[in-house]
From TrEMBL:
Keyword line: Methyltransferase, S-adenosyl-L-methionine, Transferase
Gene Ontology biological-process annotations: methylation
Annotated CDD domains: AdoMet_MTases
Any Pfam family: CheR
A GO molecular-function annotation: S-adenosylmethionine-dependent methyltransferase activity
Residues covered by the CheR-type methyltransferase domain: 30-235
UniProt entry tagged with the keyword Membrane: no
Protein name per the record: CheR-type methyltransferase domain-containing protein
Organism: Sulfurimonas hongkongensis
Length: 259
């Protein structure tokens, strides 16, 4: 009797799908998708990628990489979550400060208002460093505009909050910290006077919308190319070069970026 009803149930609810088998064996498709979308390559770190994406899937009840791939194509939220999860956002104030000093001296020589872009800005330390260094050099706040862009939405939310830890401000002198931050317990909270000098946008440098940001006098693009392969670096470089107001102006890359 019981089996009769089971059978009947199976027939009438034929659309009840069989559970797809769990399969986290090969993340190659995810690596390709991620590289196409962001430029970031995991070619030499496939084991790391495999483990990370498996954790990502398990946390969301996605039982295979192929299922994740099909979701990525139609679910913008999952796509953003994966980008936030897989991009590396390490940065700190006054990183490679010599380049910031070079920028400051160029801006001081410039007679007009300048537009500066940090692509990528990650959690904000780089564009805020530029703002602080310019003010410290006596440049008036209305002489410059700074835009920070990044593909990682978590990083940008942190940038907008601008609440940092000791390790983020380790390169700053006590005087600078006192002038530009409030100290609360173990937190360093950037003052609004600096926060208001930087705008942030969530954007992928490979998206067509990147070009709509306009042209910039100075572009910083540090420590992003390290995640790209040679071909992607060349493509990204061309895109960034096209964003300069003056084609003679060099772009500030990080020393590890190896163009
Ligand atoms: C290590 S951080 C560099 C931050 C800062 N420029 C510095 O040098 O300290 C690299 C950043 O590149 C961003 N990124 C990677 N691919 C990107 C893309 N296609 N478009 C925009 N940002 C991207 C990541 O989200 C990450 O925040």
């Amino acid at each position: 009797m019981f089996s009769f009803f089971r059978k009947k149930e199976d027939k009438s609810f034929g659309e009840v799908k069989k559970e797809e088998p769990t399969d986290y064996s090969d993340a190659t498709g995810i690596a390709e998708y991620f590289k196409n979308e962001t430029g970031v390559t995991f070619d030499k770190q496939m084991n790391i990628l495999n483990n990370k994406v498996m954790t990502f899937c398990k946390q969301r009840g996605i039982n295979s990489f192929s299922k994740l791939l099909s979701l990525l194509d139609r679910d913008a939220d999952i796509k953003q979550e994966l980008i936030d999860y897989l991009t590396t956002n390490e940065t700190f104030f006054y990183r490679e400060f010599k380049q910031i000093e070079e920028l400051v001296s160029l801006v001081k020589k410039d007679s007009s208002t300048v537009k500066i872009m940090c692509a990528p800005s990650s959690t904000g330390e780089e564009p805020y460093s530029i703002a602080i260094a310019l003010l410290e050099a006596g440049v008036k706040a209305d002489k410059f505009k700074i835009l920070g862009i990044d593909i990682n939405s978590d990083a940008l939310n942190k940038a907008k909050r601008a609440v940092y830890k000791q390790r983020n401000v380790r390169n700053l002198s006590d005087e600078i910290v006192q002038r530009y931050f409030y100290k609360q317990d173990d937190k360093f909270i950037l003052k609004d006077s600096i926060k208001s000098l930087v705008e942030f946008r969530l954007i992928n440098i490979f998206d067509a919308s990147f070009a709509t940001l306009g042209k910039f006098d100075y572009i910083f693009s540090r420590n992003m190319f390290i995640y790209f392969d040679a071909q992607t670096k060349a493509r990204a470089k061309g895109i960034l070069q096209g964003m300069r107001k003056n084609q003679e102006q060099k772009i500030f890359f990080g020393h590890a970026d190896e163009l």
